[in-house]
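Run log, item B.
One chain of 342 residues. Sequence copied directly from the ordering sheet:
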Amino acid sequence: MTGPTQKKLPLVSVIIPTFNNGRFIGSALESLFRQTYPGERREIIVVDDGSTDNTPEALKKYGQNIFQIHQQHRGIASARNTGISHARGEIITFLDSDDLWYEERLQKVVERFVENPRAGMVYHPVELIDSEGNTIVHNFYYAFGYKEEISGWVANEIFSGRIYCGGSSFAFRKAIIDRIYPIPEDIKRGVDYYMIAFSSCFTEAEYILDILGKYRFHGNNISMWAGRNNRKDLAAVNKDFAYMRGKLLEQIIGFQDVDAKKVDLNIIRRRQEQERIFYHTLDGERVKGIKRIPSLFKGRPDHRDLLRGMAICFMALFIPAFGFSKLLKLYENLKRLQIIKF
């Protein structure tokens, strides 16, 4: 590879948290063993968070090629904390156990870190595949309307959701991870977003144009897509994300060296209010949700946030709770077709 000689290449720690993903983890690991980045300059840490399926058996065949940690089931945040606590690399990156990387992924990520010593994060687009590995969309970022090719200080773009915060598409310098560690282990959903958004408050990011991984979409993904077909589940998802954003705000505010000129916390607050409005309305407490509507327009929102706020206002005032899932699906389809941009 270009850049420093192999003797000077940074050690890369790849952390794979897993829970009941025995059917996929072998493919994830095989994609690591095919990496063009030298094997002696990477370590693979697999944290099995109390799996009850065939995950332990699936990991046995890899023996000394990976560092395995087994713990009682405590959730994704705990599994990531455990992996971080054992990582020795100068660069730390995470691969979800149901995702895959292209063979040049680590090499290109390291090259970008070397090219820009100021960058504490590097990220790239991914392909979207189904549970069988078939391509759904070639470029997830482009297909779902996320912004591309943004480098530098990207905190506000991340806060707003305009940059996709997929754990398998980001890598970090250890010095940045050390600043945000440990992750609060009471966060149920949005751990990737928490880590990436928090990290973006302290460093610049570099974007690699190449698609370097595959994000697998299946029924057990812990994401904002969860619960789309069930009103109760959708309420729980929004409640969990609102809680995560509250923890994120609490942590960021605790750091006095965060540059207020580069970091607009009002964006996080508005997204949190959106989620609170949704879960109150979905839980049958529409009046509580309506009372929060003014908060969507605080802190000088830009035109996209104004449009989003007006759409949420309309939903809270006029749409029956059972119709939220259908509208959200329609919104995602319109974003994918790039008919709407917010």
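Observations after the first pass:
- The longest helix spans residues 231-253.
- The chain has a mean pLDDT of 92.
Flagged for discussion on Thursday.
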